[in-house]
């Protein structure tokens, strides 16, 4: 992991407003000066997650999830702390000084980095081959499709010649067959090893850290079947886990405030030809959970643009529905040409294409139009079935205004009254889709609050709220009996060496134990413990702690007395116990 300095971490934290960042992931409800949201960490229905803008922390009252802005991103996106810092920095446009190479070096293990290295060498070799005499036909095919040299270089398109050229090249470079097989660049046959992508035009696929992980290989001569082949699942590539061009499209999507989703690599090239860079491909018509997660993380509206044919339009329908179920705002390009994006450009020109992709329907419009084309509205049964299906679809919309608008539209299309249509909505709503984010590990339950523990909590609560309490504690007590709580107290004292006022959001990053973080959040909200310096309560807590320590010592002596036979030793223990009891009485008298 890249090492990001404490200074930079603090800079990002102070720039990032927690409500603004969480608001990019979840809809927020205003609660006075603060906010609430439906908690993504447990199966929540009412907003249980509270976000304090003053303290820059969040806390769920049901599942106990809580923390600062980094904790949220870490748990929501399931990434490491440094990755969370980088993501938050990106969200709030705060530049960081870490280098991406260092990031890759530290994020991936040596074996994986070696796979990337092999892929990179292969890509260089295949790019070179594309411009060799052997590939004049293939290169001119690419030119015919309108791919410029710039585009070919940008997407690192190459050509894998025959006679196992790639295998022989990589073997000569010293790479082992074992590694080449592991990433599916070669395959094993009874007569030896062969290139997996022999005589194919190669479109490399990169992961979201911009590392090469797979190839998409297109047939390069007449009769070569199948037309496209892909790298099989490997340790570094799982079909459905990647969004092609995600790495590139991320910043463009932020700028354009939307991202286009298409089927294949060549569709991304088509958009690129037209100057549109905020485009990713699902590499197939299905959209996986992981891809939905990646899309969601872009925090921009999604625009689907699958092919204009029946399969593509079906993909639009299915995927739009999935996105909406995941509460992601989504639109569909109105493509009535029956062509794929590249064909649209080649047959109708760039201008037509740009106009087409700018005309979008919200998903419900798209649904209603797509299904309407299959219905004979003069046939009562068909019409009623259509109304039933659409009414239930409209009922799923979360926006009341949208619901009214589209019920009215459906009424206009079918001739049924709006009230009739609303009556068609099935009483039982379909069960809510399971959220993408799994619950975070439940924090350890709070320790039973014995007299001792509640005294320790009182001390810690005051320490969190006042430097004066910290000085008083150092002078009069200086330690807590429980080791973990004592560690927490030490971290707080440490904090006050730098600053006079403690910010919980900042302290959280300095605590290493999850239980300590949870306790800080627990104390912060618990009304039982003082929220400001209260010398009397503090000194009372010290007394209670001392008494409870004395009680523990006395009990220990009693136990020893039972088993001791030596008279001398017994007397010694007895007098020790008497003196401890005297101390105990004195403390209790002082407390009166
Ligand atoms: Zn929760």
* Proper CATH architecture of the largest domain: Orthogonal Bundle
Count the beta strands. 16
Mean pLDDT: 89
Bound molecules: zinc ion
Estimated structural class = alpha+beta
Number of domains: 4
Which CATH first-tier class of the largest domain would you pick? Mainly Alpha
End-to-end separation:
56 Å
Radius of gyration: 32 Å
Helicity range? 40-55%
Q: How are the strands ordered across the major sheet?
A: 1-2-3-4-5
| Biggest sheet character | 5 strands, antiparallel
Per CATH, what is the topology of the largest domain?
DNAb Helicase, Chain A
Folded structure, characterized:
This protein has 26 helices and 16 strands. It is α+β, with helices and mostly antiparallel strands. It folds into four domains: 93 residues, Alpha-Beta Complex (DNA Primase, Chain A); 123 residues, DNA primase DNAg catalytic core, N-terminal domain (Alpha-Beta Complex); 123 residues, Dna Topoisomerase Vi A Subunit, Chain: A, domain 2, CATH 3.40.1360.10; 141 residues, DNAb Helicase, Chain A, CATH 1.10.860. It has a five-stranded antiparallel β-sheet with strand order 1-2-3-4-5, sandwiched between helices. Strand 4 and strand 5 form a beta hairpin. Helix 20 crosses helix 21 and helix 20 runs antiparallel to helix 25. About 3% of the residues have low confidence. The site of zinc ion (ZN) has 10 residues, from loops. Zinc ion (ZN) binds next to loops.
Keywords summarizing the entry:
DNA Primase, Chain A, globular, 5-stranded mixed beta sheet, 5-stranded antiparallel beta sheet, alpha+beta, Dna Topoisomerase Vi A Subunit, Chain: A, domain 2, DNA primase DNAg catalytic core, N-terminal domain, binds zinc ion, 54% helix
